[in-house]
Design brief:
The chain is α/β, with parallel strands linked by helices and about 100 residues long. It has a single domain (about 5-100), classed as Aldolase class I (TIM Barrel, Alpha-Beta Barrel). Helices cover about 35% and strands about 10% of the residues. Strand 1, helix 1 and strand 2 (about 20-25) form a beta-alpha-beta unit. It has five helices and three strands; from the N terminus they run βαβαβααα.
């Protein structure tokens, strides 16, 4: 999916037919509040915010109707990869997968 950070970039990519866009870096670019603000003027677009999203902030993103999914390095942190700690990564991935059942509003 193409990545965007601004409304202009979102409009440009939607002109090519894309409806699902990566919003990066989400937290520094306005995060949840940015996504709330663009929901009405960009009603046909959905986003995958990444960049600064954490296990703690993911639920707030997932509650938004214009968010399809989130991405975050918390699922496979560098130290766990370096240590080949696959059980920890599996645990984190399972916890992240459980976030998909949140009610959207």
């Amino acid at each position: 999916m193409p990545g965007i950070q601004t409304v202009s970039e979102a409009l440009a990519t939607s002109g090519y037919g894309f409806r699902l866009l990566k919003f990066f870096p989400a937290e520094p670019a306005g995060g949840v509040e940015w996504l709330k603000a663009v929901a009405a003027p960009l009603p046909d677009l959905r986003f995958c915010p990444t960049g600064g999203v954490s296990a703690a902030t993911a639920p707030a993103y997932l509650q938004l109707a214009n968010v399809a999914c989130v991405g975050g390095s918390w699922v496979a942190p560098k130290n766990a990869i370096a240590a080949r700690n696959w059980p920890e990564i599996e645990r984190l991935a399972a916890a992240a997968a459980g976030l998909t059942g949140l009610k959207r509003g």
